[in-house]
Write a structure and sequence with these properties.
Helix content: 40-55%
Shape: globular
CATH architecture of one domain: 3-Layer(aba) Sandwich
CATH topology of one domain: Rossmann fold
Oligomer: single chain
Number of helices: 17
Distance between the termini: 32 Å
Structural class: alpha/beta
Low-confidence stretches: none
Strand order of the largest sheet: 7-6-8-9-10-11-13-12
Number of strands: 13
Strand content: 15-25%
């Protein structure tokens, strides 16, 4: 079984010749090293690039220790460089082990006919601000765990079987390849506690490790729910019996975002066309990681479905916000303002979509509730409801489209073709 990761391969190929360091970022164990050293390297060889024009180094290996010295690394590359007009591909993994690695990479980029590709797996390199250190010479390729369609293809599974596993154990490639569910759970728990959490604590020199641990549990329990640092700080006081300020909560969330463990969807006033700073939603980069944080309890399919939809949209390159639309209602003779939510306001270039996630639509009342906020959006962009049920796309008289989750997750163009 093999995961092709073709989307990311195409991004690597598209970046050739752009004069930048191609930087593969993403959460640990999402497949960055495999992408570079197996998929990309094999592609280059099949394309006719000679072995002597590919300098590929995994710098965490014991026999590579000497090359962690920046000058020794540059000398090694120079010694293996062939004076011709053919491009050379320098591929470096665990590059953060090299002292002054940004300066080293920028030096390598000045060599003629050179393409540089790097990845790393510790918290220093995984920081989302690493690209800024390259002074405009870094081209970030953000990598995610497997999408459900990648999972299906690589595992050779039908949709129903793949989705059943994916909702619980997520898309980390190493987890997907484990056959035993107990091993999947043990691995995910160990990765979450020993690797992900440890990285965040060590990188940011946190003294309140229990506070960070409790925060990640709170975020895992409230995926798909609006919240803010003040609410979370109140939860600490009432439930965890810990006193942490909203300022500290905000900083801790930023640390989790920098490690690519969670993402924030900002609240956007659709009619007012501006962001609202009051509340946000937080989603985990992988459902398996989220479930492991909660020891595989609280597996709510409706909330997980919303998280998976969010991740899928982000993998496809969309910016995703949470929409708010204002309406007025008459209650006991009084005219009252009410805010309704659109789960996702989705943008990419000139494209925009408004999407509701509805695990079940048991009756016409529920359907009307889901449609109401979309009907209040008075522009011409597509308005879509995604349901868990496998259905043929349908469009109502107001132009609102209902699509099954299976079609959305397995067809990247579903929201355009329906």
């Amino acid at each position: 079984m093999r995961f092709s990761r073709s989307k990311y391969l195409q991004q690597l190929l598209a970046g050739r010749g752009n004069g930048m360091v191609k930087i593969i970022t993403g959460v640990r164990r999402c497949g960055k090293s495999f992408l570079l050293f197996d998929i990309f390297r094999s592609y280059l060889l099949d394309e006719g690039v000679g072995e002597d024009h590919i300098i590929a180094l995994t710098l965490d290996q014991r026999n590579m220790k000497a090359l962690r010295n920046p000058d020794r690394l540059l000398e090694y590359v120079d010694a293996h460089f062939i004076a011709d007009n053919q491009p050379h591909y320098i591929i470096l993994d665990e590059v953060q082990l090299v002292e002054d690695f940004v300066e080293v990479l920028l030096t390598l980029m000045r060599k003629p006919n050179t393409e540089v590709y790097v990845s790393g797996s510790n918290s220093k390199f995984l920081s989302s601000d690493v690209v800024t250190e390259f002074r405009g010479r870094g081209d970030e390729i953000r990598m995610y765990p497997l999408s459900l369609s990648e999972y299906m293809e690589g595992m050779g599974m039908d949709y129903a079987t793949a989705a059943k596993n994916y909702f619980v154990y997520g898309g980390l490639p190493q987890v997907a390849l484990m056959e035993n569910t107990q091993k999947k759970e043990e691995f995910l728990r160990t990765m979450t506690e020993v690797t992900y959490l440890r990285d965040v604590v060590d990188r940011n020199h946190l003294r309140n490790e229990e506070g960070m641990r409790e925060l990640i549990r709170i975020l895992a329990s409230t995926i798909a729910s609006s919240t803010n640092p003040t609410k979370i700080a109140d939860t600490f006081k009432s439930v965890a019996r810990l006193r942490i300020t909203d300022t500290t909560v905000r900083q801790y969330i930023a640390y989790l975002q920098n490690a690519f463990l969670v993402e924030e969807a900002l609240r956007y006033d659709i009619k007012g066309r501006h962001y609202i700073g009051a509340e946000s939603k937080y989603y985990f980069v992988d459902p398996g990681i989220r479930n492991a944080v909660l020891n595989f309890r609280q597996i709510d399919d409706g909330h997980l479905m919303e998280n998976i939809i969010y991740n899928e949209l982000r993998m496809r390159g969309y910016l995703v916000d949470v929409g708010r639309v204002e309406t007025w209602q008459i209650v006991d003779g009084q005219r009252l303002r009410k805010n309704l939510e659109v789960d996702f306001v989705v943008n990419r270039g000139s494209q925009r979509y408004y999407i509701q996630s509805a695990y079940e639509m048991p009756d016409s009342v529920k359907m009307a509730q889901e449609k109401h906020s979309l009907q209040l959006v008075d522009d011409s962009f597509r308005k879509i409801i995604l349901v868990h049920e496998d259905i043929l796309p349908r469009r109502d008289e107001k132009g609102i489209i209902t699509i099954g989750l299976k079609q959305f997750l397995t067809d990247e163009h579903a929201i355009d073709l329906a």
